[in-house]
Design goal:
With 501 residues, the protein is an alpha+beta fold. The chain contains 19 helices and 21 strands. Helices cover 29% and strands 22% of the residues. The radius of gyration is 23 Å and the shape is globular.
Length: 501
């Protein structure tokens, strides 16, 4: 799917688009982040703080819906959380003791205001707001069925399908209708939903997307990562289990487990890239796991060098682990500029040539005349890696060896990670030696799949029962891919209505 920001660059010509692809297309895309709280007098303000902590999971849009006992209130805006929700007058427009929030990176549907979550609908039983992290692998199929039967869709995101499925259920109780909807969807989801009486959380049966339960001043919180609990001083209670539906209302807590138990397959990319390093995911410290990936890399593919250099920021923990295991000094050979906006694009040849230097600059004092190992978390297209290697050589590095703290990405994702199709994945279309030549490194190596599992504390990958969703490396998808197997053309981008935001 084309990056939605490219729409604003069309009139700048192919040079700007190429630079945008180089800077933004050669990385894994964050998914989304969700947050919900029940029964707290400062519900919206706490939700805004939680979304700040989840900003790394989506930087294109943010939204909050609250309920004050009589009315729902919604604020949904394009841009960062701080662009809107740091203002007191905005929080004052979100009264109530219940709220749900969402930070978005679009994987289905462009970044337009009507796609910004939480989505809200007025149903027979009252209002329902839904915030969704993940992607439905039968979302387009269900959407077409709903539209053929008379549904009128207001967004182009798969999350809206869930609202319609709840609405068309003939069950009498809301939670039964909600579970009816969950039984019809496939793929990955962590849902936080709000009615006029309840806060509801749900996680897909494989547990692909994370969802945790916390508590603040006796009030329950549902959110994507523990770092969102830390920022507000909340206590971590537990992970929501795969396939679990949990409900909070005036009667307390109610747990439903509507699906037959199956082996969980949480997404391995939460450890490689998505989650913040200070989060705890399924009982594991993300920071410690990434260090372990780096140490395993050192065991598998070390060569004599003078310094270990991370590609900031994603490669830093793995580089620390590599350095500690190998005994090679860790140096910040690349300095990242955190203040370059994503739309800082000028279609001139000079800027195109210096594109990566907008975000990354060589620290010549740390690398000149030295043999270096560059550590990054993953490799997608290879365009940024190529420019960083060249930057290191231009700064005087004697040798540049490249190491990736994950296996080669060979297959696309359908669960909320915006990866290219196979033709756009460098490792799927080139041999290791060809990739090394393309990026210009003296050597290139990836973490092995078994090594990745060993770093996670497993003996290796069991093909009959893999512990994680590792389909991008193995092609072993954990759920049905209904939309991909339909003979009827299934466009990834549906029709759009231009609107002011």
């Amino acid at each position: 799917m084309r990056n939605p920001d490219q729409d604003a660059l069309l009139d700048l010509g192919p040079a700007a688009l190429e630079l945008q692809d180089d800077l933004e297309g050669d990385t894994l895309r964050e998914e989304c982040g969700v947050f919900g709280i029940y029964g707290h007098p400062d519900a919206a303000a706490i939700t805004a703080l939680g979304l700040h902590a989840l900003q790394h999971r989506g930087q294109e849009a943010a939204g909050i819906v609250s309920y004050d006992g009589g009315r729902f209130h919604s604020e949904r805006r394009l841009g960062l959380v701080g662009d809107t929700f740091s203002r007191r007058e905005v929080i004052d427009r979100l009264p109530g003791t219940m709220a749900v929030g969402h930070v978005r990176y679009s994987t289905t549907g462009a970044t337009i205001l009507r796609n910004v979550q939480p989505l809200f609908a007025e149903l027979n039983a009252g209002g329902l707001a839904v915030a969704h992290n993940g992607n439905l692998t039968n979302g387009l199929t269900l959407r077409r069925e709903l539209v053929r039967n008379g549904a009128m869709m207001q967004s182009t995101t798969d999350t809206e399908v869930i609202l319609h499925l709840v609405a068309r259920s003939r069950r009498s109780r809301f939670i039964e209708r909600y579970i009816d909807a969950l039984r019809e969807i496939e793929g990955a989801y962590a849902l936080v939903s709000l009615t006029n009486k309840k806060l509801v959380g749900a996680r897909d049966p494989r547990g692909i997307r994370p969802l945790v339960l916390g508590e603040l001043d006796g009030c329950p919180i549902l959110t994507s990562e523990t770092c969102a609990l830390d920022i507000i001083g909340a206590r971590f209670v537990r992970d929501i289990e795969p396939g679990e539906v949990i409900v909070f209302d005036e009667n307390g807590q109610d747990i439903h487990k509507p699906f037959p138990p199956i082996a969980p397959r949480p997404c391995i990319f939460e450890y490689i890239y998505f989650s913040r390093p200070d989060s705890i995911v399924h009982g594991r410290s993300v920071y410690e796991v990434r260090k372990a990936f780096g140490a395993q890399l050192a065991r598998e593919s070390h060569v004599p060098v003078d310094v270990v250099v991370p590609v900031p920021d994603s490669g830093v923990p793995a580089a620390v682990g590599y350095s500690q295991h190998s005994g090679i000094p860790f140096e910040l050979g690349i300095i990242r500029n955190h203040y370059v906006g994503r739309t800082f694009i000028q279609p001139t040849q000079a800027i195109r040539e210096s594109g990566v230097r907008m975000k990354h600059s060589a620290n010549r004092a740390a690398i000149e005349g030295k043999r270096i190992i560059l550590i990054d978390d993953s490799l997608v297209r290879g365009t940024t890696s190529k420019k960083i290697v060249r930057m290191m050589r231009d700064a005087g590095a004697k040798e540049v060896h490249f190491r990736l703290a994950s296996p080669p990405i060979l297959y696309p994702d359908y669960y909320g990670i915006d990866l290219p199709d196979r033709g756009g994945l460098l490792a799927a279309t080139h041999s290791l030696e060809e990739m090394r030549e393309i990026i210009g490194a003296d050597s290139l190596a990836f973490l092995s799949i078994d090594g990745m599992y060993r770093a996670m504390g497993e003996p290796g990958r069991d093909p009959a029962n893999p512990k994680f969703s590792d389909h991008c490396f193995t092609g072993a998808y954990p759920t049905h891919l209904t939309d991909q197997t339909q003979t009827e053309q299934q466009p990834r981008q549906l029709s759009l209505l231009a609107e002011a935001s």
